[in-house]
Structure formats: structure tokens, C-alpha cells
Amino acid sequence: MIRMRLVADAINRRGLAKAIVSGRDRWEESNRKYKDDIVVMHNPGSHQQLKYIIDAHKFEWAKIVSDYDDNPFNLSPFNDAYRWSGTADIIHDGKLLWHHGNHGFDLDRNAETVKRIRLSMRKSDMITTTVKPLADALKETNDKCAVLPNCLDFSVWDEARNHAINRDREPGVVRIGWAGGSSHYEDMFMLNKLWKPLFKKHPNIRLVIFGCMFKGTVKEVPADRIENYAWVDVLQYPYKLATLGIDIAIIPLRETAFNSCKSPLKWLEFSALNIPCVCSNETPYKEVVSSEETGYLRDNASMLSRRNGQKSWESTLDNLIRDEILRKAVGQQAYEHVKANYDIDKNCHLWTEAYSRLLNGEVT
């Protein structure tokens, strides 16, 4: 919903159209009141959403656009959301990871959920996604797809950044930060062997986890040198992230079909706060990050050793930990690039243009 609200607010500010954000499951009420031309739904798949999509076509209420920021058909079994849409029992290392009837995992229910998602997608007048790989994957279900990239409201992010500048800092301490939810276990696990040598070498570093902390992936980090902050409401998120005082951000991403359909949103957010990022050299980051200039792209294999020399994760973090001037230079370059290219006020016209093509019958 935050992506839809972000776009709606920008469209209204720019006077490009009249955009209304209604409560969840209140599309019919909104349509009666405002006579909507287009109704945009985020990740539709519930019974109510599918019913509305069908009725909207039947009664010619409005065109339906379904917006997706993840591939709902390719969840990893290490993603907790697999509980609600996984369609097979999973055995990992000889142990049952997911089994029908255990811990709320129901194959029959999940099969119906996936069926509803696919039918909702198929019956939509248009699909919008955040990146081309996701659009390509969803075109198998509905080929009327438009790519509308994730963007940021810099009036919010600049305010958050400026408020955090005067935050009290522990002298000499360098804070390495990661932010994410429960779907990222596989990504963080890849860094498991990096922590021990890094923390032994640099007594002045702290690891800052914002969101879900997978304890097994950070067991080599001394307990007094790790901080964990609970997730917050999305409207508070920029401000909370800014107050954490992160000097270097890490964005590990395992190569999977699901991850290849993600957007580079984490890099955008950290960059909006002038924080340099070390990212996995994988889609979606390798398509947008200019390595050594607006961030760093490092192969996942180099997390396990220094054999890539200065191109390894450990060596890159070594350099950034030691060099404050380098951190600030790369962070500033990333900020300038993201603000120039991913500001929602500069890009909201992409949404109104896509919707106009749909209304004009140009989406086939």
C-alpha cells in the first residue's frame, strides 16, 4: 500500500490526475462515490479482491490494475510467507521444513490461494511491476504489463536525513547496517563466515540489524557489538532508519528466481541517506549500481574468502571501515544519483501515462 500511496500523493501534488487512496476492501464503496476510471490493487489474491475484479468487469465499474513488487509464484521455502502460499512439502538436510498440517501449513488452502492470485492477475486489465524481470515472469499469466520503478519521496527522506545529522555518535565507532524482514534468511546466512575475521580485525565496529535478526547467522558477532531494532510502521521507516547512525550498509542477496524479480529498493533507501552500500553482484543491484562510484558490487562467492583481493566483501568492508572520506564520497555520489533518477515527483508521470494508455485502449 505504501507504494500506491506514494504515487497517489505525487500525482495529486503535480496535478496530473485525481488519485484517491481508499481503505483495504473498500473499492466498491470508493467506485460508487468517486466514479473511478481505474482501480489499482496491490498484490490482489483475497476472496474479496477477486470478487471485486470480476464484478468490475461484469458491471463495467472501472479498469483494474494489479500492482506487484514480488513474484508470488516463486517463494523460497526459507521465506516465512511460504507458510501461506507454498504448494509442496519441503525436506531440508533430511528434516521436514514444511509439512502439510504442521504449524499452520495447509497445502489445500495454499493451492486455492495461488489459484486466486493467478486468476486475479489474469482478469486484471493491466499488471504493473517494479522491474523488467518481474514483468517478464508475470507475462506468462497476463501479458499486459508495464514496468513502473520504485521511487522515493525526497521531501520525506531529506527531512529524515537532515534530522539525523546532529545525532550523538560514539567517537571512532563505525556502524555496519542491514535492514530487512523474515524473508532474508538465505541472504544473511551467506555472510556467516565473514563476521569473525572482520570483528577481530576491527574492534571499533558495530553491527546494526533493523528488522529481523537471524541469530544463527550472526553468532560470531560479539553480543556487546550487535544492536537489533524492531520494524516500525512504513511511514516512520525513513526516520527510524536515519536515526540508526549507519555508516556502511550491506545488502547481500542470494541468486534465486524469486530474488531476481526484486527491485533495488534497499539501495535506494540507504543511498537517500548518503550511506554507501556493499551489494551482492546480482540482479537487481548489478543493473543500477555503478560499482566503486554509487556503491559496491561484490560476488557472493567472495563472502567466503579474500581470493578476489580488493574485490572481496571483506576487503571492501576493510577499506570502508578505515576510510571515512571514501565512505562519505561514495554515499554522496549515490545520493545524487538516486535523487536525480528515482524521485517520485519527477517520475509519477510514468504512472499517469501508463493508465492513460490503458483507458485509450492502447494496452493490448
Notable traits:
364 residues, alpha/beta, Rossmann fold, 2 domains, 6-stranded parallel sheet, 15 helices, 39% helix
Biggest sheet layout: 6 strands, parallel
The radius of gyration is: 22 Å
Strand content: 5-15%
Shape annotation: globular
Task: Describe it.
There is one protein chain. By secondary structure, this protein is α/β, with parallel strands linked by helices. The protein folds into 2 domains: 2-151 and 345-359, Rossmann fold (3-Layer(aba) Sandwich), CATH 3.40.50; 154-341, Glycogen Phosphorylase B (Rossmann fold, 3-Layer(aba) Sandwich). Helix content is 39%, strand content 15%. It has helices at 2-14, 27-34, 47-58, 82-85, 107-123, 132-138, 154-164, 185-189, 195-201, 237-243, 265-272, 313-322, 324-341, 344-347, 349-359; strands at 38-42, 63-68, 90-92, 95-98, 126-129, 145-147, 174-180, 205-211, 226-229, 248-251, 277-280, 296-298. The strands form 3 sheets. It has a 6-stranded parallel β-sheet with strand order 9-8-7-10-11-12, with helices on both faces. Strands 1-2-5-6 form a 4-stranded parallel β-sheet, with helices on both faces. α11 (265-272) links the parallel β10 (248-251) and β11. α3 packs parallel to α5, α7 (154-164) runs parallel beside α10 and α11 (265-272) packs across α13. The longest helix has 18 residues, at 324-341. It starts with a helix and ends in a 5-residue tail after the last helix. The model has no long low-confidence stretch (mean pLDDT 93).
